[in-house]
Amino acid sequence: AAKGSGRDHVHLFTPSLREAARWRLEVASRLREDAIDQLVVHYQPVVRLDTGAIEGVEALVRWQHPERGLLPPDAFLSVAEETGQVIPITRWLLRETTQRAAAWAAEGLPLRMSVNVSARHFSAETLVRDVRVALRESGLPPDQLVLELTETSVAEDPTRAEDQLTVLRSFGVRVAIDDFGTGWSSLAQLFALPIGTLKIDRSLLTAAERAAAGETGAVLAAIVGLTRTLGISSVAEGVETPEHLRMVREAGCDLAQGWLLGQPMPAEALPGWIRRVHA
Ligand code: C2E
Ligand code: CA
Ligand code: CA
Ligand code: CA
């Protein structure tokens, strides 16, 4: 099953090999034609651990497929990455999400908006322009936009990554390193980059269920200590249980995200959800 499926009513998607080959072709051609119109964005709350306040949201793309239902990103983004379609998709997402955040702010609900940027787009010339256009058109204050990049996408070409991040930082947008702990990148290189946030991959919390919880706690605390020293903020991903929440609080993480704290949900549902949960 695709990860992340089910909870926010994303359909399970487990094709056989032959189906998978057909699916890739279908995705590639559909994404070229009408699929961008069928993409939807769900938003998952990012919560401050000290106050419980909602700091912002992460935008997670889904495809409202006319026959197959709501598909998770894993079902189509890797194909989009190969064909290059991920670039127009992210360009659309940057527009959609910055406009959404600007509209929420105008309604008295300012939320920091995190958007995932694929490796392919990060290494493309257009990213800087796409971000600039989205900010200009939406009027969103740049520090309300966070671009999430994986360790692997910055590690591919550290020199270029640094130049690219320096330009993006000069606009005032924030940069987060996503899925930290899964990429095995050089820490020295990673932390030389102008990043503002480290998102600690949920595999660390999953590991806690197998290993001694104390060990995971120590690893988490060490990572958080490192972020403090570097003056960047930390987000724990995949907080699913009260035990996870206790561990990330104890380790001193600034922020957290996970099913326990809030599922990804459609834009229309978010303001009401925040009012209900944080009244
Ligand atoms: P990610 O950036 O690490 O996003 C977090 C994923 O974890 C999301 O899966 C989210 O629904 C899921 N999640 C949230 N809380 C929990 C939890 O408590 N437990 C578990 N097990 N999972 C949780 P989703 O939406 O299926 O997205 C999967 C991946 O697809 C994302 O991982 C990201 O790498 C990529 N992705 C999603 N949206 C976009 C996008 O707009 N652009 C790009 N380039 N990539 C995207
Ligand atoms: Ca992410
Ligand atoms: Ca992540
Ligand atoms: Ca991930």
TrEMBL record:
It comes from the Bacteria. The chain holds residues 407 to 685 of 704 of the full protein. Residues 20-278 form the EAL domain. This is EAL domain-containing protein. It comes from Blastococcus jejuensis.
